[in-house]
Design goal:
Strand order of the largest sheet: 1-2
Keywords: Kinase, Metal-binding, Transferase, Zinc
Pfam families: Mob1_phocein
Shape: globular
Helix content: 40-55%
Distance between the termini: 21 Å
GO molecular function: kinase activity
Number of domains: 1
CATH superfamily: MOB kinase activator
Number of strands: 2
Protein name: MOB kinase activator 3C
CATH topology: Butyryl-CoA Dehydrogenase, subunit A, domain 3
Organism: Aythya fuligula (Tufted duck)
Length: 217
């Protein structure tokens, strides 16, 4: 039900970036359909994230990275009117955590940005990576690069920071929109996935530790 509910709660026009779609007829599309069917079946999310027998772990990770990008993109796109230069001049998770932006082009050193600027840079950066055939190959028989899981770790680590910022700074907006249950489900799905494959360092998870213990028991 989650995908259906998300569509009802969130306005798709507010998606921060265009959705990345899987090409019908490809193995990745079939895997995506399999993952979506499991999600909608009401199975425990811990079970849903497990690698199906006989499937490639890199394909499974690729499908989920793209799907989480789409979902988190949608959540933040809906919240973005409440996340402004004025309300969030620093990309942070409470008083204790501040996230600085660094990439290989414009920002070569960790740079302090407002939350909206950080989110904009992040979504552009992820979109560039998942559309790069050398990193996320879509043609049959083309292997994943050696550093593929390393790249996915970086993407998922930074996507986790979107949850940190949204939960800590914009939770009242989530509640006012009636979206709490849906955002929580998306977060749990994401959390169980990154834990299943040890894709994000446990230190990065600290800002939401208490909440995670409460909702992912």
């Amino acid at each position: 039900m989650m995908a259906l509910c998300l569509k009802q709660v969130f306005n798709k026009d507010k998606t921060f970036r265009p959705r990345k779609k899987f090409e019908p007829g490809t193995q990745r599309f079939e895997l995506y359909k399999k993952a979506q069917a499991s999600l909608k079946s009401g199975l425990d999310l811990r079970t849903v994230v497990q690698l199906p027998p006989g499937e490639s772990i890199n394909d499974w990770i690729a499908v989920h990275v793209v799907d989480f990008f789409n979902r988190i993109n949608l959540i933040y796109g809906t919240m973005s009117e409440y996340c402004t230069e004025r309300s969030c001049p620093i990309m942070s998770g409470g008083l204790k955590y501040e996230y600085r932006w660094q990439d290989d082009s414009k920002y070569k050193k960790p740079t302090k940005l407002s939350a909206p600027q950080y989110m904009c840079m992040l979504m552009d950066w992820i979109e560039m990576l998942i559309n790069n055939e050398d990193i996320f190959p879509t043609r049959i028989g083309v292997p994943f690069p050696k550093q593929f899981q390393q790249v996915c770790t970086k993407i998922l680590t930074r996507l986790f920071r979107v949850f940190v910022h949204v939960y800590i700074h914009h939770f009242d907006s989530i509640i006012n929109m009636g979206a709490e249950a849906h955002v929580n489900t998306c977060y749990k799905h994401f959390y169980y996935f990154i834990r299943e494959f040890s894709l994000v360092d446990h230190r990065e998870l600290e800002p939401l530790k208490e909440m995670t213990e409460r909702i992912c028991h």
